[in-house]
Amino acid sequence: MTQYAIMTDLNRCIGCMSCNASCKIINGVPIGNFWNKVLRIGPNPTYEGANFPDVEWYYLPVQCQHCEDPECVKVCPTEASHKLDDGTVQIDKSKCIGCQFCVMSCPYGVRYLNAESRVVEKCTLCEQRIAEGELPQCVSQCVGMAKWFGDLDKGLESFEGVAYATGERRKAGEYLESFTDDEVYTLPDVGNHPSFRFILRRKKWQGAV
Questions:
Q1: Banded model confidence at residue 126, pLDDT cuts 50, 70, 90
Q2: Is 200 helix (H, G, I), strand (E, B) or coil?
Q3: Which of 14, 65, 142, 153 is buried most deeply by CB count within 10 Å?
């Protein structure tokens, strides 16, 4: 079984928006819509009653989580939204009728109706790229090597990223600062079991979206 996903090391993300911009360019995402958003979480006090400069924050990239049990697939009346054998959630635009049930059911607000084509769009995890053995665009263009791609069933240490300056692939387990299980998070789970993972060390997780 395969469950492709992205793991983001939030201690490395600097909020540069390269993932956002490169995603929009390669996928032709319309102005005003996003497949990949970057949120600033904070600033929050580092202890009760603290004021600036005793605050902390981090950046949180949010996109389709390619859930293990996606709500969007359950509510789609035409089976346009469906899950592939590689674990990704895709949209068959020829079947989409623009009802937006999936948009309303998504816990993360990462789907939208394309005003021109009248079909729903979202992150595909660059299916066309991973089918050819390449990495999703947002991973390959991450200048801070914060985003990593792989199969959850093979463990987070096996996820791959790219050294932006050289294009050389690296393994997360060989490159990233070590992390423990209690430093690995997901976005809120409402029974859909989001697949993407987020690493956050030495800061308080504030992952609600």
A1: very high
A2: coil
A3: 142
Give the pLDDT of residue 208: 62
**Other residues' Cβ atoms within 10 Å of the Cβ of residue 45:** 14
- Tell me how many degrees the CA angle 187-6-139 measures, rounded to the nearest 5: 130
Residue 205 lies in a domain: no
Q: List own/partner pairs for 25-32 with CB under 8 A and 24 or more apart.
A: 26/126, 26/137, 27/124, 27/137, 29/121, 30/114, 30/115, 30/116
Cα distance between residue 110 and residue 122, in whole Å = 6
What is the rounded distance in angstroms from the CA atom of residue 3 to the CA atom of residue 6? 10
> 129 lies in a domain?
yes
pLDDT in tens, 53-107: 888 999 999 999 999 999 999 999 999 999 999 999 999 999 999 999 999 999 9
CATH, residue 48? 3.30.70.20
**Cα separation, 119 vs 128, whole angstroms:** 19
The domain of 69 spans 4-199
Give the 3-state secondary structure of residue 104.
helix
* 3-state SS assignment for residue 128: helix
